[in-house]
Write the structure tokens for this entry.
Amino acid sequence: MPKFIIIDGNAIVHRAFHAIPPMTNKDGLVLNAVYGFTSIFLRTIKELQPDYLAVAFDLKAPTFRHKEYKEYKAGRVKQPQELYDQMVLVKDLLKAMQVPVLECEGFEADDIIATVALNDKKDKLKTLIVTGDMDTLQLVDEDTEVYTMKKGVNDIAVYNIKAVVERYGLKPDQMVDYKALRGDPSDNIPGVKGIGEKTATDLIQKFGSVENIYKNKKHWAEKKISAGVMAKLESSEKEALFSKHLMTLIYDVPVNYSLKECENKNFINEEMKSLLAKWEFGTLLKRLDGFTGEGAVEERKSVKTTKIKVVEIKTKEDFKDLVKAGQKAKQCAIYLSDDGASGLKAKLFGAIVTFDGATVFYLPSSLIEKNSNDFFANKIIIAHDFKRVHEILEKLGWHLDNEFLDLMVTFKYGEDQRDKQEQIPKFLLEKFAGNVWNIMTETT
């Protein structure tokens, strides 16, 4: 059966932007999200070999969900302009590669994806959805699978019917009922207050859907629903049904595209290569060599043998192991996972530390607050935007008085700073900076 890959452009770009440190070319153009998107895009095409391909995006205009529920996504923080600027660059890349961009005012990318999936059934195509958004699991069926980043670029989870049932204990078409009960804080969808994942799963397993729960109120007791849960359901019937309405994807978006336009054309062309060269994506340009056939198998083997080891530091004893691991190292690279605010206001979630680029350690903020930074002693600290890193850690009692190398300075000023690149250990440029996407999504 021919394959149609539909990619959630917004989800992938957002994830790349927040996972990869700001990368700039010699002109000072911020490109971290473009790099992450392109990397995933190339791997997806190489491994899945689609016959048809398109990328769906949201538009700025409010959707029908915003109009029906003014609190929809109200809690989301406005993203930096650098992210929106890179959306434009990603679309420039797709245009150069002759890949259709699908957008429709009043609807979200997920609705467009649902519409494409339905159309694919009419055309007898298999749909492969590439996204970071689990809302699309409701679309999984015999002819539709979801590919989502489980840990990093090199670890993608594939959800078919069996995989959804194994993970959630529910059928794919019940996922919207499950989320309608437990709500979705990221979209500010209420659900039933006080109903968590376990209870939501139990209720859907017993009744099949949100509607059936309320149609069978007289059977709640015999189904062993506790008095507390009954009270929560009773007081939130309207919210539960409305939440399901908001979370159910639309299958008839009036988006303009044709199957012919989505054919997998010669997307690796001179215009596309010119953009990668302009952005100084040398590593990605190299990946284009031998892009089909046996080359794909060779690259997968290479990825497997160079996989980064991630160690999560959970206890004080683990922290001692971290100190021991870095005793003989002359340098230490550190990357922070935070909310993106200024250094003095940023909320820290955790930190990633590596001494050799092959093993990385993840420290939650709670452990950073309770331990010292003695393992930094007598080492060169390598970071992106060292001043900001210093400000954030200093609030927690970590003082970085070491000699340091700042990647932001190195990359931002181009040729004038090439001598500094020679000072930066090769492991950092090739593994830490290049694979920070993998590290971040594997540990947070």
About this structure: Confidence is low (pLDDT under 50) at residues 292-306, 410-444. The longest strand covers residues 144-152.
